[in-house]
Design a protein that fits this description.
- The structure is a homodimer.
- With about 230 residues, chain A is mostly helical.
- Chain A folds into two domains: about 45 residues, Arc Repressor Mutant, subunit A, CATH 1.10.10.60; about 150 residues, Tetracycline Repressor, domain 2.
- In chain A, about 65% of the residues lie in helices and about 0% in strands.
- Chain A contains ten helices and no strands.
- The longest helix of chain A has 24 residues.
- Chain A is elongated, with a radius of gyration of 23 Å.
- The termini of chain A are far apart.
- Chains A and B meet through helix 5, helix 7, helix 9 and helix 10 of A and helix 5, helix 7, helix 9 and helix 10 of B.
- Chain B binds a DNA duplex (30 and 30 nucleotides) through helix 3.
Chain lengths: ~230, ~230
DNA sequence: GCGCTTGTTGAGCAAGCGCTCAGCGGCAGG
DNA sequence: CCTGCCGCTGAGCGCTTGCTCAACAAGCGC
C-alpha cells in the first residue's frame, strides 16, 4: 500500500478523494448499485462491491444510507421511475392514434435494452426482497399502481373505437400479465424468442380484445358464465 | 449442551443419529432445501439452515453433494419433475376432450398450491442462479424442453377441431408465456388476482387461437405481414 | 455379544458480510 | 495563505458463509 511520501502537507499529484453533495453522491451510489445488480445479481448486493463500483470507500454507503437495504430500495424506485417515464412518453405522443401508441409501447417494452439479462437480474433481486423488506414492499405497491394506471389509460383511449366494450381494469391487468410473461420468457431464455413476435402477440391480443373475442373481459351482461369449454 | 453421561459405551435412551442409504438421504436433503427456499428465499440457501431443517449436521451435506449449488440444482430438478408429472397427468386423461384437458391443466396451474409465495421464492432463487451456474442452466434447458413439449401436445390435439390452423411451436411458447405472466402477477401480488379469471383468460386465448383471431400465429400463407395497426 | 464398516458429527478455517467510528484531508470562506 | 468544517476513509468488530477432516458411533454380519 503506497502511502503519500514524506512531504506531509505538500500539494500532491492526485487528491485521494473528492467531495460531492449528498444529492449527487446518493444518485451515484444508486447507479453503482444498479450496475452491480445487473452484473452479479444477488451477489452484487454487497457494500464492498457497490462501493468499489462507485469508486468510493465502503463506509460511505452507510454515511448516505442507513443500511444497504434502503439503498437497494432506492435503486428499485429509480429503475421503476425510468420505466414509467418511458411508458408515459409513449402514452402521450399526440401525433399517434391510440392503437399506434400501444404498438409503440409494445415495441419499446421488448427492445433489446429491456430484454437484457442484467435488467432481469435486477428485477429478480427486487422481487425476492419484497417478501422480507417493508421498504421494498412500499416501493413495489406504489410503482405497480402507477404502472397499471398508464396501461389503463392506453387501453381506455381504445375503448371508443372498439366494437366490443371490455372491463378496463381487468383488461389492463391481463395485458400487463401477458407482457410480463413474454418479457419473462425472453429474459429467461435469451435469444430463443424474437422481440418482433412478442410485439405481434400483444397487438393480436389487443385486437381480439377490441373485437370481443375475449368473452371473459367483456363488460356487463353475462356476469361469470362458467360454462365448461 | 448436554453431553452423554459418564457411562461411555452403555446403551443410551436415544441414538445420537441414524443412518440412511445415500438415496434416501439425498432425497431428504432435497426436500429440506425446498422447504428452506420456500420459507426464507435466497437466505434459505445455506448449508447450516438446510441441515438444521433436515435434522442433520452441516457436514452431511458435503458428504452427499459436492457443493451446495449441486444440491440446489437437484432441488430444481425435483420441483420441475413434480410439475411436469402433474402436467402429464392432465395431458393424458383419456376420459376428457382435448379442450377439457387444457382447461383442467389451466385450473391445476393456478390452484392455490401453485400460487403460494413459497413456490414463487423457489423459482426466483432458481432463475437467479441460472446465469452463473452451469449445473442450473443444464437443468433449466432440459426442463423447459419437456415443459413446452407437453404444451405442444395439448395444443396439437386441439388442432384438428380448430377452424384455423396455427403454428404449433410458436403457439405453445406464447401460451406458456401467457400462463407464466398470469402466474407471476398472482405471485407478486398475492390476493389481488383471482385464479378463476386467470383460467378464463387462458381459455379465451385458446379459443381466439382456434378461431384464427390471432393472425400472428396462423400457419402458412402470410409470412410476416408487419402492417401498422 | 462383538468387531468393522462407513455414515455421521461438529469444531475449525479462511473468506466475506453489514456496519461503526476515530481521524484524515479536500476545499471553501476569511 | 491559512483555518476549520465536514465529507470521506478504512481498519476493525462480530457475525455468517461454504467446506474440510479427524474422530465418533450405528447397526450389520458374524
Amino acid at each position: 500500500m503506497v502511502r503519500r511520501p514524506e512531504t506531509p502537507r505538500s500539494r500532491q499529484a492526485t487528491p485521494r478523494f473528492h467531495r460531492a453533495s449528498a444529492q449527487v453522491r446518493r444518485e451515484a451510489l444508486v447507479e453503482a448499485t444498479l450496475a452491480c445488480l445487473r452484473r452479479y445479481g444477488h451477489e452484487g448486493m454487497s457494500v464492498r462491491r457497490i462501493s468499489r463500483q462507485a469508486g468510493v470507500s465502503a463506509g460511505l454507503i452507510n454515511h448516505h444510507f442507513p443500511s444497504i437495504t434502503t439503498l437497494v430500495a432506492a435503486a428499485y424506485q429509480t429503475l421503476a421511475d425510468s420505466l414509467l417515464r418511458s411508458m408515459r412518453r409513449h402514452a402521450q405522443d399526440p401525433d399517434l392514434t391510440p392503437r399506434q401508441r400501444l404498438h409503440r409501447y409494445f415495441e419499446a417494452s421488448f427492445a433489446p435494452d429491456q430484454i437484457d439479462p442484467g435488467v432481469f437480474h435486477c428485477w429478480l433481486v427486487f422481487w425476492s426482497r419484497i417478501a422480507h423488506d417493508d421498504e421494498m414492499r412500499a416501493v413495489h405497491e406504489r410503482t405497480y399502481g402507477d404502472y397499471r394506471a398508464v396501461l389503463e389509460q392506453l387501453l381506455g383511449e381504445l375503448q371508443p373505437a372498439a366494437s366490443a366494450h371490455f372491463r378496463l381494469r381487468e383488461a389492463a391487468t391481463a395485458l400487463g400479465a401477458l407482457m410480463d410473461g413474454l418479457w419473462l420468457e425472453a429474459s429467461v431464455f435469451p435469444g430463443r424468442f424474437k422481440a418482433a413476435s412478442a410485439v405481434r402477440l400483444c397487438d393480436d391480443w389487443v385486437s381480439a380484445l377490441c373485437d370481443g373475442a375475449l368473452p371473459g373481459l367483456r363488460a356487463s351482461a353475462q356476469r361469470l358464465q362458467r360454462e365448461r369449454p
